[in-house]
């Protein structure tokens, strides 16, 4: 359906964005200025305590400085209610008292049909609720009592009972004015192939209503009490209302609880969700009879940046986790991940809570592991990796998994973490085991006496040679830049907060630099940087300043020029990160080479070299206001590196 020109503008003009958003947030009165239409609140789209979500009521736009969510009233309703565009417009139109424009006849017919089916579903929920309370529901009430589900909890979840009668529900709904065709289309009855009268789909089962994010009944789930039943759990079929791959049990209440700060938990079934919610974990959902789908993952990430998958402590739970991992890897983006909480063996959440209480499940949540740890466990647990061939097989499987991650940044960080875990498993810098012979091309060259003195070097490709990344001075260069950066920040503590992000990402190679880096972070937290640097960082700073290439840096020789120090820091951070990023790219490329180097490797080395060159160039536009000072500062350290000042000159 298309909207006439100007309809959305009229809708936005009639509604205050602050009013629309105000239903979902609690405004911060200290930061908000109602008179200017300036509103602040904790963001409803991610968990936080500070008020980083800003609404400009005059312009009609919102923006979160934490998660970067932004938009207008329509997009806010779409994201907060998890509805499509037209549905969001209809919600706002009702709130504003605006008549929706005439719809396409076919679309109107589909919408009317869905509305009628929703009425059928709600009538079925009420019928089964009545059956549970009646004389025919004693067996179901006994079962629910054994599951320790109180009457109040049964009312909250609107649990019902479907007696083992062929067409009890169908006849009851027909008596209420619904047609047999509507009962079948809602998935509540089955029409025989021979054309006979429809019969009830759910018989002899405890009934759990399945609702969409807005609380509308869209299907039913049934739990059989007969141990000989063909299926223990049965969900309604795909209908115009229900798509089980795009629905979650307890979606709406869980989304609301997660918005208030509770962790989003993904359990296996209805009773797990109910048991956890009743125990205080209201932000709990479950897939509906299938493994988690890509659409369900998208729904989960709309609710929470890092849902926790609660796994039963058995083989089936492990298999389910591995399926989720394989599904999630290509979909990962920055800020969206999964954690996995493994329950004690043989227990599901309901069992654990009954035996040990809610605090036991909280301990399980507290120990939830990131997805990369489960990947590592899957690839290594129960395997003996004691030979080069087996290590190579592990490396190959890890590279295959990493290749599934489409986001370059996520792939890089996963690779670094897997590399760290691999080093923990195998150790680094250890001697080769007894009897181990290196490859032929790395063995010492045999001389006249039959014994070699030096390994034969492999000639680098032209791309690798030109990149300068294989030079012996690379690590020294990085230490040089680290020392200058830390010395500048110690002399200009006011710049620590400005460069906090870059400093946090800088892994120092030099112990003195690492020590001073930690001191700077502590000083930033205390709010007294100068005093702490004098008291705790004086020794480290003195060590750095004793290095000639540090002490004569122009920005350090002029302690009153903070702008020069700022510019120097920005450039050195950029060059250091470019150098290390290029080195990581080289290492990753080399790891992927299983035989001889090819054109792909040469291209990657050349690309890495070009990245370093780009970082080293001085932009004419950026330096227009600084003139020769910028060129001097930029070229100073490079001249030291080019002349290899760390190499002792022969007299």
TrEMBL record:
<dbReference type="InterPro" id="IPR036977">
    <property type="entry name" value="DNA_primase_Znf_CHC2"/>
</dbReference>
<keyword id="KW-0863">Zinc-finger</keyword>
<dbReference type="InterPro" id="IPR034151">
    <property type="entry name" value="TOPRIM_DnaG_bac"/>
</dbReference>
<dbReference type="GO" id="GO:1990077">
    <property type="term" value="C:primosome complex"/>
</dbReference>
<feature type="region of interest" description="Disordered">
    <location>
        <begin position="437"/>
        <end position="466"/>
    </location>
</feature>
<comment type="subunit">
    <text>Monomer. Interacts with DnaB.</text>
</comment>
<feature type="domain" description="Toprim">
    <location>
        <begin position="262"/>
        <end position="344"/>
    </location>
</feature>
<dbReference type="InterPro" id="IPR030846">
    <property type="entry name" value="DnaG_bac"/>
</dbReference>
<keyword id="KW-0804">Transcription</keyword>
<dbReference type="GO" id="GO:0006269">
    <property type="term" value="P:DNA replication, synthesis of primer"/>
</dbReference>
<dbReference type="GO" id="GO:0003677">
    <property type="term" value="F:DNA binding"/>
</dbReference>
<dbReference type="Pfam" id="PF13662">
    <property type="entry name" value="Toprim_4"/>
</dbReference>
<keyword id="KW-0460">Magnesium</keyword>
<dbReference type="InterPro" id="IPR037068">
    <property type="entry name" value="DNA_primase_core_N_sf"/>
</dbReference>
<protein>
    <recommendedName>
        <fullName>DNA primase</fullName>
        <ecNumber>2.7.7.101</ecNumber>
    </recommendedName>
</protein>
<dbReference type="Pfam" id="PF01807">
    <property type="entry name" value="Zn_ribbon_DnaG"/>
</dbReference>
<dbReference type="InterPro" id="IPR002694">
    <property type="entry name" value="Znf_CHC2"/>
</dbReference>
<dbReference type="GO" id="GO:0003899">
    <property type="term" value="F:DNA-directed RNA polymerase activity"/>
</dbReference>
<dbReference type="InterPro" id="IPR006295">
    <property type="entry name" value="DNA_primase_DnaG"/>
</dbReference>
<keyword id="KW-0808">Transferase</keyword>
<dbReference type="GO" id="GO:0000428">
    <property type="term" value="C:DNA-directed RNA polymerase complex"/>
</dbReference>
<keyword id="KW-0238">DNA-binding</keyword>
<keyword id="KW-0862">Zinc</keyword>
<dbReference type="GO" id="GO:0008270">
    <property type="term" value="F:zinc ion binding"/>
</dbReference>
<keyword id="KW-0479">Metal-binding</keyword>
<dbReference type="InterPro" id="IPR050219">
    <property type="entry name" value="DnaG_primase"/>
</dbReference>
<keyword id="KW-0639">Primosome</keyword>
<comment type="function">
    <text>RNA polymerase that catalyzes the synthesis of short RNA molecules used as primers for DNA polymerase during DNA replication.</text>
</comment>
<dbReference type="InterPro" id="IPR006171">
    <property type="entry name" value="TOPRIM_dom"/>
</dbReference>
<feature type="zinc finger region" description="CHC2-type">
    <location>
        <begin position="43"/>
        <end position="67"/>
    </location>
</feature>
<keyword id="KW-0240">DNA-directed RNA polymerase</keyword>
<keyword id="KW-0548">Nucleotidyltransferase</keyword>
<comment type="similarity">
    <text>Belongs to the DnaG primase family.</text>
</comment>
<dbReference type="GO" id="GO:0005737">
    <property type="term" value="C:cytoplasm"/>
</dbReference>
<keyword id="KW-0235">DNA replication</keyword>
<dbReference type="Pfam" id="PF08275">
    <property type="entry name" value="DNAG_N"/>
</dbReference>
<dbReference type="InterPro" id="IPR013264">
    <property type="entry name" value="DNAG_N"/>
</dbReference>
